[in-house]
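Task card 7
Instruction: Convert sequence to structure tokens.
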Amino acid sequence: MATDVEVPALGESITEGTLAQWLKNPGDAVAADEPIASLETDKVSVEVPSPVAGVLTEQLAQEGETVAVGAVIARIGEGGGAAASAPAQAAADATTNPAGPSETPALRGDDHAPQAEPAGDNDDHIMTMSPAVRRAVLELHVDPTRIKGTGKDGRLTKDDVVAAAEAQKSGTPAQAPSSFVTPAKAGAAPEEKLGSRLGANDGGERKEERVKMSRLRQTIARRLKEAQNTAAMLTTFNDVDMSAVIDARARYKDLFEKKYGIRLGFMGFFVKACALAAKDVPSVNASLEGDEIVYHDYLDVSVAVSAPKGLVVPVVRNADRMSFAEIEKTIANFGKKAKEGTLTVDEMTGGTFTISNGGVFGSLLSTPIINPPQSAVLGMHRIEERPVVNDGQIVARPMMYLALSYDHRLVDGREAVTFLVRVKEAIEDPTRLLIDL
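Output:
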């Protein structure tokens, strides 16, 4: 008897998602709670687990299709293991490769997740690759079966393929496997077939690629544009001497890591500084709901984190009551989960203030966009030595530009400048963070 696999609850107010990728194919044995597909919502990517152990018998939705919460997207039949999956796999081989299993191509161009058949002792292994990874494999002429994946469950990522291609160039260039060649037309020479598929050696042919925007990317675009259209957004700037914070980190980083098991970073100082400044300027930590301004007596900081599919903003809740170690551990955990795509909707819901650190990518100065319904966002930037005047002397100091974008409907210019000055003072004299000044 087959068991239905339904789209799980995706979070409050989220009623549908996009089926991003099948992680299992018909005929594959699955264990209970093993992920068989990944879904992409407006906020996060989630995996759909199998409710029972057995064999995936049907896929009832295509990759890229929008599916509602509760919809049946697959069925799991009884059985399991290699014996149960072998007949279905043999049938799939016969469909995709009429010439027989011994001539199964390394890459399959159907609508399901592409597969590669490794050589050697793992002939029965199936490698699942996303469309982007498959495209990179084809364009860079690498053998995916010889690459160790660093993605979830050992799956290949685009970075893995690019790194393998670079390593291949630095050593003895390997020939692209002949199984990569897909016949372009009858009677075409092997070189012509490969060139037509990869666009290689074509005398500088100009190429374009069209990729549908992910739901997450669409949501980011919509919300940012709404913020520009709705908020009376303005940005004020200041610079801050990072000498004191750098000295403090250098002095205590080893003791801090030994005691708490986490490195002492800059974010802890800035979160603490923003919490201190918000006490003096509460409107920066407020939000607008209709014609009412909501003031918060807590600071829930949305920390902008770069993820493979776009920028996400998990929330450090009650950051004003956290220690440095708690802040650093929470942010580090969010960064790890963002890379793995395991952030939950709850972890990215809410937030009263946002901090975005473009400096990690080398940004010198920017005007960040606020995250509605929040009223402000602090932008951090890279640290670089610049000449400054100190006690009448021109000296080199590690300086950082700070930018505070704010909604002028809630925050006056005087308040925004005051908030940023309070942050600057706390960073340049971290003792203020200890004595609440």
